[in-house]
Amino acid sequence: MTSTSTATRRRDHRRPRWADVSLSAVVAGLIAVAVSYAGPLLVVLNAARNAELTPEQTSSWVWAISVGSGVVCVLLSLFTRQPVVVAWSVPGAALLLAALGNYTYSDAVGAFIVAGMLALVLGVTGWFGKLLASVPGPILAAVLAGVLLPFVLKVAGAVVDAPLVAGGVVVAYLLGRRFMPKYAVLLALLAGVLLVLVSGQGSTPQMGLELSGPVWTTPTFSLPAVMGISIPLLIVTMAGQNGPGLAMMHANGYAANDRLLLGGSAAASIVFAPFGAHSINLAAITAGICTGREAHEDPTRRYVAGISCGIFYLVFGMISGTVVALLAAVPTELITAMAGVALIGALQVSFSDTMADARTNPAAVEAALITLAITASGVAPWGIVAPFWGFLGGAAAYLVLRQTRQARALR
Predict the structure, then answer these.
(1) Burial, 161: exposed, middle or buried (Cβ in 10 Å; 0-12, 13-18, 19+)?
(2) 403 HSE (CA, 13 A, CB side)
(3) In terms of DSSP H, where are the helices of 273-361?
(4) Residue of 338, 339, 393 whose CA lies nearest to 366
(5) Residue range 22-40, pLDDT digits in tens
């Protein structure tokens, strides 16, 4: 392990310094938020539309998950001096696409609070962290690799569909990595925006600058809503977001305090639930943008990316309607290509960690490859996301393979 990664194992007690601020870290935070709004937010909007929520309730939902995420990002990144990135649960929002309309909205809000309280217990007691610590590192790294891989693979399709814009992003990124590694993602973003403007492939958004605000919903509690929303939401959030989110931080050398991070995000979920937030949790995909080398070559200065991400969440949350309209005018290929190139570094680290114990613990690596295959497949039986099944399948395979090798060794 390098000295820089060793330094990140402990919380840095230095005060925040303006000297730590870098353009690459600020841009990393901006890209992370843009990726969150361009894709995951659309799942939330579709769920709200399916449940026939009012425009005010929908706007409050977006406000709550944005502002809640922003507050947690800023506070935890400042306190830990680590790039803590949180977001709303994407698999949780996907779950609500079908489930939300089956209950009154107040019952759904009550179910969000119950899910947050259960997540808080799992987080602050350290039970979830202990579960992850008991699993071999290659399996956890493989879950992360399986989550990241589809996003990087989509870049090829984006280049085929929009060779000028997406291809330009890839070329700019490669040239940036060759000549200015610190600013490779920034150069790719600037190139993509410039090519969109020159080619006219974007559309003109119909929007005005309007402030968004919260709408309070008094929660009610019902057993059907708890069983139909709270429990599935807890499972997909912990397995599909918090687990990979912790793995992402560990993969980049950060000794993440699982009790603090999970507890803090779960507490924010509870506080913002009456305004519509279904879940606030550790991010995995966007965390890779802020915790990797693209944010800054020095890991001790990447916490600025987490703060930047939080500030952009707060700003965009206040004008969420305007931001959604603006991002709708951007070609999807640009967002796809930007997400892919920004995550290459994180994918490289996770692949390396997946194969790290090939000689000393081949059973763990073989189980990790099974984990990778299941997670990257995207299967989601019963609405439970692929990372959960990948984790489960890999752990089960490891138990079988380890017992088999131990039996052979005794013969």
Answers:
(1) middle
(2) 6
(3) 285-291, 303-318, 320-328, 332-342, 344-354
(4) 393
(5) 888 998 898 888 877 765 6
- Round to whole Å and give the CA distance between 212 and 36: 18
Percent of the chain, pLDDT > 90? 30
pLDDT in tens, 147-197: 778 878 889 999 999 999 999 999 999 998 888 876 677 788 888 888 988
Query: Which residue, 309, 277, 294, 270, is CA-closest to 75?
Result: 309
pTM value is 0.70
Classify the C-alpha dihedral 291-295-301-307 as positive or negative: negative
**CB-based contact 106:119 (threshold 8 Å):** no
107 Cβ neighbours under 8 A, 6+ residues apart: 220, 221, 222, 224, 225
Handedness of CA 91, 92, 95, 96 (dihedral sign): negative
Helix 243-251 vs helix 386-410: angle between axes, to the nearest 10 degrees? 70
Structure tokens at 333: 């290929």
How big is the CA angle at 52 (ends 51 and 54), to the nearest 5 degrees?
A: 125
Mean pLDDT of 354-358: 81
